[in-house]
Amino acid sequence: MTADPQAQEPGRLADLAALGDVDPPPNLVARVMTRVSEPRLPSLWQWLRRPFVIEVRLSPLILVGMALALGAAFVYVGATLK
What we know:
By secondary structure, the chain is mainly alpha-helical. It has one domain. It is built from 5 helices and no strands. The protein is rod-shaped and about 95 Å long. The protein starts with a helix and ends with a helix. The relative contact order is 0.05. The mean pLDDT is 80.
């Protein structure tokens, strides 16, 4: 006695495999494809929660210039507080 039901009914698997050969209606395919191709608008909550990227590109000369300007600003503020 075997516990496998497919061993008892060999034609059952072939019958099930034949069910996959059904073509979908063309209007269904067109509707699904247009729905997939159109992007959905995000909800307000999704729009607020999406990450955003800030990209800053700095050359070494700009970094040196900013450091000098920041140092000069500290010296100026320190000199005016006395």
